[in-house]
Amino acid sequence: MNRIFILSVWLFISGCTTSPPTKTSNICDIFDEKRSWYKAALKSEKKWGIAPEVTMAFIKHESSYQQGAKPERTRIFFGLLPGKRKSTAYGYAQVTDGTWEAYKKSTGYRFVSRRSFKDAVDFIGWYNNRSNKKLGIPKNNARLLYLAYHEGPNGYKKGSYRSKPWLLSVSTNVQNTSNKYANQFNKCQKRLKSPLYFLFN
Fold first, then answer.
1. Is residue 100 part of a domain?
2. Which domain holds residue 169?
3. pLDDT in tens, 92-121
4. Tens digits of per-residue pLDDT, 6-56?
5. What is the pTM (predicted TM-score) of this model?
6. Helical H runs in the chain?
7. Could you count the other beta carbons within 10 Å of the beta carbon of residue 43?
8. How far is it, in rounded angstroms, from Cα 175 to Cα 130?
9. What is the DSSP letter of 93?
10. Given 17, 76, 156, 190, which residue has the most CB atoms within 10 angstroms?
């Protein structure tokens, strides 16, 4: 009986798992495959003013579109045993526990999950809109938005990222991905908007 129960729970959890897109280098391919992601990205843009290419570039570089992504564990005892994870970051947007709670408190949302793509893109929109308001970062500047996303408002103000060459490199990659996604999205946006497209494809 216990085995049947455990199997049922496992099947339920497996059914709730969303696999990453087959192709992640082209935003049009992603939205073709993940229709609900397209709608969620547009909804976030309408609400927070952050373009889909920026949001999707963040997720690509934060989690590679892995629903349950977590930071690697540290190693202890001469690297033989796994230790604690480097942070509490989790999910598509790699949000820490404290920042997620701040998002929930600010928006009033109670039943949201870092494993939900819809909730993750809304969070990214919320956070980047906040960076725009508090720090004056343009909403289309993916590089600076990413630095603020990683370091937090206070860290960004202090310029803590300047001593982190690896982070500066990643932020440039985020900008490059955003630019590439923007060019691709311009080519497929019209057909994606058509109600007949998703009806017959």
1. no
2. 22-66+110-193
3. 999 999 999 999 999 999 999 999 999 999
4. 444 433 443 357 899 999 999 999 999 999 999 999 999 999 999 999 999
5. 0.85
6. 2-15, 27-33, 35-48, 52-63, 97-107, 117-135, 142-158, 165-193, 195-200
7. 14
8. 19
9. T
10. 156
Q: Which two tokens stand for residue 160?
A: 């803590």
Number of folded domains that form the chain: 1
CA end-to-end span of the chain: 43
Give Cα 23 to chain centroid, integer Å.
16
| Residue 91 structure tokens | 């999910």
- Residue given tokens 């609900």 in the structure block: 36
- Residue 67 CA, distance from chain mean position: 9
**Lookup: tokens for 173:** 């990659």
Q: Is residue 11 part of a domain?
A: no
Instruction: Decide: 106 and 126 in contact? Cβ < 8 Å.
Output: yes
Residue 108, by phi and psi: left (phi above 0), alpha (psi -120 to 50) or beta? left
